[in-house]
C-alpha cells in the first residue's frame, strides 16, 4: 500500500494559460488553446469544459491547438496543469461568450441577463424552463442583427505565494490531489522474480470531467510505475557512456507485465478548478513503485531500498535474510 | 584559408522523389461513416465518458505526426554525438563532410548565435563547443538530401578531444575537492530547505527513531514517437518549426534566444505529440534545424533514433534519500528529518522544479509538526535529467511510503492504520504552511482498502493484536508467496 | 536498385528502391502509407507492425525486396466500404489509444490474432500484444477493445457498445 499527494501546476512560478472561445451562428463553438495534445486527451477535456459552460455538447466544440501563430499563450502540457489551469482559462473564455449570448437573449425573453442560464443547447430563464431560445437562434441573432459575434478570451494563473528562502514557508501551488494504490504481488522466492498481479488505485482528481480518460491516465501511470519499480534503468559504463540505450536492453513493461487494474475515482470537488476539477496526469504513477515494494516486503519480508527491484536484487535479499535467520523447520 | 566546395562544384545527387503530400490527405477511397458516439453529443458535457476527439483518426492510422509530414525539397539532418562524457574539444574539422555530394549544410557550435539555453539556468549548449559535458552532447549537424548521406557525412567529421575524467557519482560530486563539472560554478547548483517546528524537540518527544536510506535509478520517458523536428526558414526571415514539443510557448522563446531573432519571427507548430511524459518539454534540435534550413535554403527534418532518445533527451533524476522519523508508540509522527541528493546530470534543465517538488512533497501526505527537509541537486557528467511525470514525487513517495511501512512494522501496526492516524485532513497545514483544501487522502486510503479487500484487525488500535501488518492471504502457488499488501 | 511488386491492401503496387530499403520505409515513403510508424527501426517496439501473408511482422525488419510478390495488409487497408473495422471502432469507443503512435501496430497485431483465433482469452490477447510497446495506456483498454471487437466479429453483438 502507498498513498501520496501531488500538486497541480508549477512551484510558485507563474504558469498561466490563455484561451479564446468563439461561437458561430449555428451555436457551435471553437476553442483556441496554445496547449498541446500529447496523448492525455486534454483537448477532449477542454472541449467538454467549454461545452459545459455554454450548455452545448462536446461534439459542438472544435479545438484548435499547438500553433504559436494561431493560438494564445499557454504554459503547456506539463505539471498536470492542463485540466486545471488551461481548463479554467477555457471555462472563463466560454463564460464571456455565454454572457454575450445572455445580453442578446435577455430583451427577447423579457428578462435581465443574470436571470438566464445556458443548458441543453438553449438559453433558458432560470426556474422557467419553458421560456427559452435555442442557442443557435441567439448566436445567429448576435451575428446578423445586433452585430456582436460572440467571442471571449481569458487567462488563468494559479494563486501562489513565494516560499521563504530560509524556511520554505509559503503557498507554492493552487491545489493538490491525493491517491492510494495497493498492489498484490507474486514473488518467486527461488528466482526473486516479482509479478504484479493486481493493483487497486483510488485517485482524487477533483470532479472527473471524463471518467474514461481518467481511467486511461491511471492505467498508463501504473504501467510506468511498474517499470520504475521492477524493470527500468539506464546503465552507464565506467567512462560515463550509456550501455543500454535501446529497447532491446532497456526493459519496459509490455502487455504481459501488466497487472489487473481496478481504478476508483474518489468523489471530490475543488472550488478553484473548472467545475471542481483538479488534474490526474502525473500522480497516477507516483505511488505505484512504493505500493509494489511494500507488497514485496510483506510477501517475502525483504526491504528493497533501491529501485528497480530486479529479480537479482530480490533474490539476493531473500538469500541474505535466510542466512541471517535461524533455520526453521517447515511443516 | 580552407577552401570549401560550393554546391555547384559538387556532384549532383539524385534526390528521392517525394511522393506524399505536404500534409496527410485522407488515404481511404471510401466514405468514412460519420457516427459520433453518443457521449459526445450529450449535455451536460462534463462527466460524460466522451470518446476522444482524435480517437477515430488514431484508429485509422490517419493522425499526422511530424514524421508523417514531408515538404518539397526537404533535407534530412543528423547530429553527431560526442560519445565521451567529459572532454575539451581541441578542433572540429567538417571539411570532408561538407565536400560530400548531397550534403547541403553543416553547422557546429560556432554557428549558433547564442549557444546556451535552459528552462531556468541557461547552462545547456545547443551544440557543444570547446567543452563536452556528457556523452550525448551534439557536436555537429549535417543536412543532406537523404538520411543515409547525412549519416555517412557524420562519420567524416573529425573531432579532436582531450578526454577528461568524468564526475559520475552524485555523492562524489558533492565533495568540495571534486572538480567542478561546470567550473567555476559549484557542483551543487541548487538547494532547497523546508523548516517547520523544532525537530530536536520532536525527536525528544518520540518513543522510537526510525532511519532509512533509499535510492532510485535513472529512467527514460520512452515516448513511442521519437523527437522529430522540421524547420523551414523562409525568404521573409521567418522560421516555421514543426516540432514534437509539449510546450510551444517556452520552446519559441528558447529558439528566439538561441537564434538571436525576435520571437515574432518564429512559428512553432506541434500538431499532435506521440507521447511526452515530460521528455518533450524543452527544445532539443530545433535551433540546429533552423540554422541548417537557413544555410541550405531548404526545409530540414530530423527524427531521433531510439538511441538518440536515450542519450540526448532528458531522463528522470536519480535520488539518494535519507529519512529519519521520530514516532510515539501509538504511531504518531513527532518529527521527520530528510535529506535528498538529486543527480542532475550535465545540465540544469528542469532540476529547479524537480528539486522543489521533491523537497515539498518529501514528508508525504502527513501532519508532521516538526520537519526539516533539505534537497540539493548536483552536476555530473551523465545524461541530463529533467522533467519527467511526477517531478521527483515518485522517488520521494517510494522513500516515504517504504519508510512508513518500516515504522508500522516496528510498532506492529497495520500499515493502513498508521497512515490514517497521520494523514492530512481538510484544512491541514502542508510542510510549507499552506492550508490544504479538498483533501481526500483518508477517503482514498479507505476506499482502496475496501476495494482491495484489505484485512485489518480493527481501526487505529492494532498494536496489540496483529502479526505486524496485514493478514496474509496466501494463494496456492508452488514457488511463490502471493500476498496482499 | 530493386523493383518490387507488392500486393498492398488488395492492390498491386510497384516501386524501385535501394536494396537496403525496409518494407516500412517503402510503405511510408514510396507507397504513401504513413500509418505504420517508425519507433525504433530494430524490431523492438512493434509500431510498424503489418500483416504479411496473414502473419503480423515488424515491417522495419523486413526488406521491401523480401515482400516482393506477397500480400501486405496495413492499417490503411483495414477499413472498408462497409465502414471502419470493428477493431478500429472498439479502440475508439474505449479510448484505447492515447497518443496513438503505437496504435496502428497494436491494431494490426490484434487483427492477426482474431483472424487466427476468433475468441481469444485475455492471456492470449496479452501474448499477441507482447511485441507492441505502449507507454501511455497500460494496455488495459486495448485488451478490453480487442475483446469487444472479437465479440462483434463473431456476430454476438451488432454494436460496439460499452
- Average pLDDT confidence of chain C is 95
Return Rg of chain C in Å.
16 Å
CATH architecture of the largest domain in chain C: Roll
Number of domains of chain C: 2
Total count of strands of chain C? 5
The two chains with the largest interface, and their residue counts, are:
A-B, 139 and 134 residues
Mean pLDDT of chain A: 96
What is the H/E order of chain A? Answer: EEEHEHEEEHEEEHEHH
Q: State the oligomer.
A: heterotrimer
Query: How are the strands of the largest sheet of chain A arranged?
Result: 1-9-10-11
Structural class, from secondary structure content of chain C?
A: alpha+beta
Distance between the termini of chain A: 30 Å
Order of helices and strands of chain C: EEHEEEHHHH
Report strand % of chain A: 15-25%
Strand arrangement in the largest pleated sheet of chain C:
2-1-5-3-4
Helix content of chain A: 25-40%
Question: How is the main sheet of chain A built?
Answer: 4 strands, mixed
CATH topology heading of the largest domain in chain A: Aldehyde Oxidoreductase, domain 4
User: What characterizes the major β-sheet of chain C?
Assistant: 5 strands, mixed
Number of strands of chain A: 11
Helix tally of chain A equals: 6
Name the features.
heterotrimer; B: 485 residues; alpha+beta; Aldehyde Oxidoreductase, domain 3; Aldehyde Oxidoreductase, domain 4; 3 domains; five-stranded mixed beta sheet; 23% helix; globular; disordered C terminus; C: 162 residues; Ubiquitin-like (UB roll); DNA polymerase, domain 1
